[in-house]
Amino acid sequence: MPSSRLFTPILIGGSLILLINFALRASFGVFQIPIAADFGWPRAEFSLAIAIQNLAWGIGQPIFGALAERWGDRWAIILGAILYSAGLILTAFATSPATMQLLEVMVGFGIAGTGFGVILAVVGRAASDENRSLALGIATAAGSAGQVFGAPLAEVLLGFYAWPTVFIIFGVIVLACMAFLPMLGDGRPASRHELEESLGSVLGRAFRDPSFLMIFVGFFSCGYQLGFITAHFPAMVTEMCGPISPMGTLASIGITTTSALGAAAISLIGLANIAGSILSGWLGKRYTKKYLLAGIYTLRTIAAATFILMPITPASVIVFSLVMGALWLATVPLTSGLVAYIYGLRYMGTLYGFVFLSHQIGSFLGVWLGGKLYDAYGDYTLVWWVGVGVGAISALIHLPVREAPSRLPAAAAAV
After folding, report:
1. Per-residue pLDDT tens for 48-89?
2. Rounded to an integer, what distance in angstroms lies between the CA atom of residue 415 and that of residue 413?
3. Measured between alpha carbons, how far is 383 from 308 in angstroms, rounded to an integer?
């Protein structure tokens, strides 16, 4: 029975699991230089591993959503934590690019099992109609908090240990997710009749519904922009930003190079996103979600176009990071809430998992295409404009979405 309270053990436990998940996932960029220096690999090899991880995460999301419905949420999260931990620990012993890239498939599936698709479905089912959108926003913000702390933690640990040891430490930390499972409630498996409806009629109905397909396509640009910025924005700032004044505010707090500014930009994005995700969830229970999504993608498009058209300076990097951060994962509580509202809570994990697959296909392309077009043209301008274009398409494609509950077939309504 959904609780009338906002802060429940389920919301707190789910938020802590997402915090751990995203803290470790957001740290992978810190390992680029140590791994390349250790093996003498081109930078592209580990970048491809991260891109493969993103794609595996997307493929695994609907699978773990279905497993949670069949076995119960706890077992899906346990399996995800084990895969995540094992993938990290085995990566510590990888000695070739192909091995590391293959192991990132395991890590990606582990992230899926302990990430948004499963956890947001648990939080959404447990929240009341009044609190659901805000609860999803708070859980999303917890993932953002992990993004803030994960990279600095990796940096500190690398000051004391070699990168393989840090991977092993992270593999152990992932298992802490299971300590919060008792807070998530029973998470009973679905009945046989519910599963037949879920995996048959509801999936078929969703994929025949133009609104579901528009949501699916629209989430692609979110993944493209987030994947590209996470993987390439620090390097873009390092190479394209104007110099930092030695007498300015940034220098006084220790940011004296554009490379340091690029790293700080990712943290600023994570910090701003905590507020942005919560605000998005709060707005989602008061206003039409599809219009809010269209507005977020419009603002992203304007911010990205303005940034690339103007001279890139330390001030513009900071302003862009704060603006983009406020919009960063603001789409997640709205998109997941929209899926739950239209198709119901019983099947939210599986259906949102398929939508999230589109997000991760976009993320894979953002990471991979960023490297390819940089190699071809010597800078990130073209790939940046591709991101502006797909953002504009997402803003438009959400407008025709039919934001109304989808009627269940008679057999399902009788359940």
Report:
1. 888 899 889 989 988 898 888 778 888 999 999 999 999 999
2. 6
3. 11
